[in-house]
Structure formats: C-alpha cells, structure tokens
Design goal:
mainly alpha; Alpha-Beta Plaits; two-stranded antiparallel ribbon; globular
Length: 120
C-alpha cells in the first residue's frame, strides 16, 4: 500500500487509475497533451466547467501522454491513484526531467543576468 496522500477525485472521473482533482483552472494543457483521454465538460454542464479523465490509457503511447499530462498540469490536477511500479517510475522520471530542465533554465537566466553587468 502506498503512503501517498492524493486529493479527492472530481466526480466526473472513473474510479481507478488516473484522475483529475477538483482544482482545474481550465488551462487546457492536460487536454491538449492527452486529447483522447482527458476532456473538458461542456458549457452549462451541471458538474461545472472542468477537465476530467474520460478513460484510462490502453497502450504505451496513451500511457506516455497521460504521464506527460500528470507532469504538465499547471496546478497538478491530474493524478495517478494506482500502484503499478512502471507507471510510478515513468511519472517520477518525467518529474525529474522537468525539474532538471527548469534548473538549467534558471542557471542560464542567472548567468545571463550576471554577464549583462559586464557587457551592455
């Protein structure tokens, strides 16, 4: 059993696997990343305007898209409630790659700022 504490799922989601929480900002990043898996409710839907996981990934490409959606969600709204080591490893690797890219960007920005003091 996992020690992870996960947010409550949005009621629009299936009960297992990947799901969206209740803090969607309607950024469309997750829907654009996994368009066959993550959808937006329609205007006027009684559940409100939000994204939700319509179905679980069924092949490796869909799994890759869903993992990317977990990592790219601007408010960390897409979650994985399962315990498959392969999926958990993919999510951890994607998060690590994202942070490494962020750290490189910040280092370059600081170096650029520092160097701008020497060269106008």
């Amino acid at each position: 059993m996992s020690d992870r504490v996960l947010p409550a799922p949005n009621p629009c989601n299936p009960a297992i696997g990947f799901y969206s929480g209740e803090c969607c900002t309607i950024c469309d990043a997750s829907c654009a990343t996994a368009p066959d898996l993550i959808k937006m409710t329609e205007e006027g839907d009684p559940r409100g305007w939000t994204c939700y996981v319509e179905r679980q990934p069924q092949n490796d490409e869909e799994l890759r898209q869903m993992v990317e959606a977990v990592v790219c969600s601007c408010v960390e709204n897409i979650h994985y409630a399962g315990d498959d080591p392969k999926v958990l490893g993919m999510i951890a690797a994607a998060e690590q790659a994202l942070w490494a890219a962020y750290e490189r960007r910040m280092l370059l920005a600081r170096a650029s700022h520092w160097l701008s003091g020497f060269w106008p």
